[in-house]
Structures are given as C-alpha cells and as structure tokens.
Amino acid sequence: MSMECQPLHLEGTRVNLEPLEQAQIADIRKAAADGELWKLFFTSVPAPEQTQQWLDTALAMQAQQKAIPFVVREKSENKIVGSTRFCNIDHQHQRLEIGYTWYSQSAQRSGINTECKLLMLTHAFEVLNCIAVEFRTDWFNRRSQAAIERLGAKRDGVLRNHMILPDGRIRDTVVYSILQSEWPGLKKNLQYLQSKY
C-alpha cells in the first residue's frame, strides 16, 4: 500500500476536498467564525489568533508523513466551510484515522459531512486499501459521537486520560472504527443518506 502523505484532491457532488495551503488562511478564519466554533472547548477549531499556528501544525504533520490535511469547499457558493484530514497514518498496518474535522455552523446538518466521509472512506478503502479506518472524539463532544455513529462506525471503547490538552484539561477519547469487510454495506448506507439531501 502506498500511503505517501502528498497533497490530495477529492471531488464530490456538493463539496471538494482540497489540499490545505497557506493562501487559504483568511477563508479558514472566516469559516471558523461562522458560529465561533473555537468556543467549544472540546473541538480542534482554531481561534482567529491561533489559525496560523493551526495551519502550520497541519502542514508540518503532512511534511512528516503523518497526515493529509484538507479544506472543505462547498461547490455551489465556492467557499471554504471547514477542514478535515487523514491522520495517524500507519503504513505498516494499513490503517489510518479521519480526524481534526470541523465545519462552519451553517454547514452543519446539511449533508456536507456525509459526502466528505463518503469521499474519504472510499479513498481509504478502495485506493489506499486500508484494513481499518478510525475516528476519535472528545468524551464531551456528543454531537461528534452521534455523527460518527450515524456513519455506521462501531464504538471500540474509551481511552481514559488519553491526552493533556493545551488548556491543561485531561481528555478522555472515544474511539470508533470501520473495518474493510464492513465497507461495502456502509458505503451503500452513506450513498443512501447522501441522496436524502
């Protein structure tokens, strides 16, 4: 399996997943400001003054072959409405995580997440030949947990005291996964969910 962390473009019906670039910083700030998402303590959305550091960190992860970061561009209005990435890429064991996902408040519950996950999971299982794809979220982020479960991912468990966050809070992390053998059925479900929007 070749999982080189090179910039990647995935095109859908309503969204494009485009490589994260420095030139997008103003649009990323604008997307995060829609709902002031950084105020949710359990998310990874950058506050305006932290956006440059957030962007530099994402690009450094890519340079270190640890992630492939994207911006989410809503096609009809041609605007960035969020970000997501392939991360925790394990080349030897053919698995990765989809994480660091956030969307502008106006893009939430709109079907955009469903299409993004369909694009990313299709690439992970059908191009990268992953044997498993993982999702992780904060114990307090109930909306994220519900969204992951809606995709059809199974809850593997909770990593207690998993991370010390920048504000000093110790995070419990809820872990989910989708196995390669489950993908055909889940793909049909995601296509069905997408058709309802």
Provide mean pLDDT, rounded: 91
The counted number of beta strands is: 8
Looking across the biggest beta sheet, what order are the strands in?
1-2-3-4-5-6-8-7
Radius of gyration: 16 Å
Order of helices and strands: EEHHEEEHEHEEH
* Shape type: globular
How would a textbook summarize the main sheet?
8 strands, mixed
Sheet/helix structural class: alpha+beta
Beta-strand residue fraction = 25-35%
Question: How many helix segments?
Answer: 5
By oligomeric state, this entry counts as single chain
**Fraction of helical residues:** 25-40%
Q: Ranges with pLDDT <50 over ≥5 residues?
A: none
Distance between the termini: 34 Å
Question: Main traits of this protein?
Answer:
single chain, 197 residues, alpha+beta, eight-stranded mixed sheet, 5 helices, 8 strands, 31% helix, globular
Description of the structure:
The chain has 197 residues and is an alpha+beta fold. The mean pLDDT is 91. An eight-stranded mixed β-sheet has the order 1-2-3-4-5-6-8-7, with helices on both faces.
What is shown here, in short?
The protein has five helices and eight strands, in the order ββααβββαβαββα. The model has no long low-confidence stretch (mean pLDDT 91).
SSE layout:
Elements: E1 10-11, E2 15-19, H1 25-33, H2 51-63, E3 67-74, E4 79-90, E5 95-103, H3 112-127, E6 132-138, H4 142-151, E7 154-164, E8 170-179, H5 183-195
Parallel strand pairs: 5-6
Antiparallel strand pairs: 1-2, 2-3, 3-4, 4-5, 6-8, 7-8
